[in-house]
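[#protein-structures] MJ: dropping 2-oxoadipate dioxygenase/decarboxylase here for a structure pass
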Amino acid sequence: MAMISQWRLRAAFAERLSRMYGREVPAYTTLVDVSREVNEDVLRARGADAERLGSIGRVTAERHGAIRVGTPRELRQVARVFGALGMCPVGFYDLREAAASTVPVVSTAFRPVDGEELARNPFRVFTSMLTPADPRFFDADLRARLETFLAARELFPPELLALADQAAAERELPEPQAERFLQLAVAAFELSAEPVDKAWYETLERISAVAADIGGVHSTHINHLTPRVLDIDELYRRMTERGIEMIDTIQGPPAWKGPDVLLRQTSFRALAETRAMRTPDGSVVSGALRVRFGEVEARGIALTREGRALYDDLLGRVDEQASQHPSEPRGDIARAVWERHMPGSELELAAEALAYFTYRVSPDRTRDGSRPPADLGALVRQGWVRAEPIVYEDFLPRSAAGIFQSNLSGEGIRDTGRQGIAYDAAWLSGAIGRDVLDPFALYERQQNRSLAEVARALDLTGTPSPLQGRP
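AK: finished. structure tokens for 2-oxoadipate dioxygenase/decarboxylase:
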């Protein structure tokens, strides 16, 4: 009997989810088509350089999804489903603090962590969990009602969870079980046709549209499915030309002449989707909800902790200057700040230890009989070693909050006079029942492994440090 490995399960799940979401949200299919067109055009124009942060095959197939759940129990079940696909929780994001609007969730992202697995299929799912215990959003009565509602629902059938546990333990499934797992997993994230309790949904919606989307229904669903594009500014222009309403901005770093870093994101606006609504008298009427949108992303180089500190500092400078010059386009302000303060080349990022790279020995250079230098900067300068940028696989809380906020119809309600509940990565690890991994540690491990291989290949004493010498 044929066995289906975890990465093939992951690829099949991503592909089936994409088809399902395309049926539910036709504008998503347009987004995918335009992304593919832009990627093909960029590849023709830039050649091999276009694939510096991933092969065109990987970029074209790449997706990240987004889902929302209500409780730690539901989050633990999600972790079991994605664990079947070889995906681990990476990073902690507190969108409560990152958004100006009311977004009462904390989040993590499930994704592969091994470089080979990412190359095979880099599917990731940004997963947010509601925070009913935070008194800034939910008073004691509403919290009790909300927690009772959430405790009574079942998002994932026991059969799906049992198959997920089997796949995680054995790292594969027999083909019949794999097919059943995929059917159940995709169905768990379909938009339910069950009528929504109109009064209950509106009660939560007054607090937050995100809270209503999570706690106002008996199921979960894909909120967006995101393709990756090589030129997000060009995609934004082409989508607008096709008459699709985009949000006002591209979140993340500005478009500029230097290297792409971290993540840039935008989306088309949440669409009004027809939903059945049950009124207090028991009758069912037709209504419309705006909770799902079409996001797209462009990925850059992963920054070190020092690089992220610089990025955050530059965002603060842009905020300050934008407040002082409200008539000046924010994108122009950001571009000027970046060009003054952000290193303008990959080599400068490497030299200042601001970004992560995989270092590889150049075979031609090792055969000329000379002795390699001891420090990394000289190794790169003299052609002994190539520095290949490590792509950023994760998310930015401010950008994620900006996307959420741009697709909300109202600001919601937050009692700023009350103290919020503290959440962090350690709390989330306990809630999920497995470690939430530190993305910086993952990138650093990948870089350090490559440096150790360089040292072995070149017979160097000690491992070259990215802080030694300047490329």
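MJ: nice. Confidence is low (pLDDT under 50) at residues 467-471.
AK: one more thing. The two ends are 53 Å apart (CA to CA).
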